[in-house]
Write a sequence for this structure.
């Protein structure tokens, strides 16, 4: 589709003012083509998932196996959209999953955007990326586009191919909500991944009498002093939290693992005891594991099991289809994790998490160029896009891998970013348009050699530790 000549895109709404929203606003501003750019953010400040909530609100009871729409339902807009209404008691939980000691786990040179680095690194504390995102809006003069304390409650397509947004702006001072609608030619979903906790279904969890929570509400090890704790999951958050709890909880701290993580050695670290997956919870307080061992004295269970993607504002009946397929874990009808074939004026930035901030930049530049009609190569036709999606879905099903996960070690990251790079091309001769970043040797070296967590047993004789610091390791490849 030639947007520039046939269906010009002049107004763009960006949903979310985290890292994806920040770089998308900068990319669209750089084109000097769009007449109206707005970034809608439900929080009081930019920063996205990196905003730190020191005292998170109590979360709803854990709902094992529940899908995101059941946990995070949209609010119902008033029929006549009055200017102001009392705050709706159905308020959702917008807190972020940041805990006190959290640091980034991607080296800063690879994680930050190409035109500026984090203030320090390589693995920065959580307040650094939050400040970085906030500053990025003002640095690129896109802060006037921010509409804060405003939640998108309903998104429906219009007959002209654009989008109607039903918005709710909350006034903390007056404790009132203002509802209104706006229409845009195009919408970019930059809503992130870390809003709705995922809790796998385990028999008996809903009636288990001990304290259970998701890592989203964990902040520090202090409340767990002298308590018996079971961690479910051993990804980054499970690793961090279990290591912290060794300093305060009764030992050992138990960690339930489905499989070893890449940083697990042959035996657990000091103060940690590994357990297999939980088979069943009992009202007596007993927890039975898949090997039929059990624990009776656990005080706290902390689920570090990730998050569900959620688009509670999506009206599938009016828009004609679901936006997210929960069975296969993917955007429906997507191409290159970015474009949505059935909705040419709707796109997503930030679904794959490889290199995080940096990969968002490639997507943002590609979309800004595409809707301005300046992309260097044409977007494939619908049939070819469908073929790409179905082929990838089948491949991922066989390999039991997530659709939107992109690996680094097998070259898939470079292939994906390379496609976005070629598609976007350069800006104009007169300087309109942001240039997609290069994947430099310095960035590649940092990704492959700076490790936040040591990875024992994963070197195959090709890596050795050169020096150890407090929380990261530098390794060198031989040969």
């Amino acid at each position: 589709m030639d947007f520039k000549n046939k269906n010009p895109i002049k107004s763009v709404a960006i949903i979310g003012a985290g890292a994806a929203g920040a770089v998308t606003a900068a990319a669209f501003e750089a084109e000097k083509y769009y007449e109206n750019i707005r970034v809608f953010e439900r929080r009081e400040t930019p920063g996205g998932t990196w905003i730190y909530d020191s005292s998170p609100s109590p979360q709803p009871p854990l709902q094992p196996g529940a899908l995101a729409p059941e946990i995070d339902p949209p609010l119902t807009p008033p029929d006549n959209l009055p200017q102001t209404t009392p705050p709706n008691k159905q308020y959702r939980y917008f807190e972020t999953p940041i805990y006190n000691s959290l640091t980034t786990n991607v080296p800063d040179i690879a994680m930050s955007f190409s035109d500026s680095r984090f203030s320090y690194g390589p693995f920065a504390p959580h307040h650094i990326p939050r400040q970085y995102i906030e500053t990025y809006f003002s640095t690129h003069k896109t802060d006037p586009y921010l509409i804060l304390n405003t939640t998108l409650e309903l998104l429906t397509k219009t007959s002209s191919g654009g989008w109607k947004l039903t918005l709710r702006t909350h006034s903390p001072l007056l404790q009132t909500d203002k509802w209104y609608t706006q229409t845009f030619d195009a919408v970019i979903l930059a809503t992130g991944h870390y809003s709705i906790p995922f809790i796998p279904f385990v028999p008996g969890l809903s009636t288990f009498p001990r304290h259970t929570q998701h890592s989203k509400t964990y902040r520090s090890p202090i409340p767990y002093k002298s308590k018996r704790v079971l961690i479910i999951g051993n990804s980054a958050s499970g690793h961090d939290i279990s290591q912290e709890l060794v300093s305060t909880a009764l030992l050992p701290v138990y960690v339930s693992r489905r499989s070893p993580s890449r940083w697990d050695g042959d035996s657990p670290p000091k103060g940690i005891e590994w357990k297999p997956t939980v088979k069943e919870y009992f009202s007596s307080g007993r927890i039975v594991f898949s090997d039929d061992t059990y624990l009776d004295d656990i005080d706290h269970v902390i689920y570090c099991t990730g998050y569900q993607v959620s688009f509670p504002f999506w009206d599938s009946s009016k828009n004609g289809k679901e936006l997210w397929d929960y069975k296969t874990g993917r955007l429906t009808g997507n191409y290159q994790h970015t474009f949505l074939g059935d909705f040419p004026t709707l796109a997503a930035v930030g679904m794959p998490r490889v290199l995080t901030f940096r990969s968002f930049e490639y997507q943002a530049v590609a979309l800004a160029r595409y809707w301005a009609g300046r992309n260097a190569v044409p977007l494939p036709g619908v049939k070819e896009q469908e073929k790409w999606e179905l082929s990838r879905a089948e491949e991922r099903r066989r390999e039991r891998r997530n659709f939107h996960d992109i690996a680094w070690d097998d070259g898939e990251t470079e292939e994906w970013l390379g496609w976005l790079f070629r598609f976007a091309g350069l800006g104009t001769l007169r300087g309109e348009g942001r240039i997609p970043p290069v994947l430099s040797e310095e960035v590649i070296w940092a990704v492959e050699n700076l490790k936040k967590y040591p990875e024992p047993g994963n070197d195959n004789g090709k890596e050795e530790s050169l020096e150890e610091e407090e929380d990261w390791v530098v390794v060198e490849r031989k040969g």
Remarks:
- The two ends are 48 Å apart (CA to CA).
- DSSP finds ten helices and 25 strands in the chain.
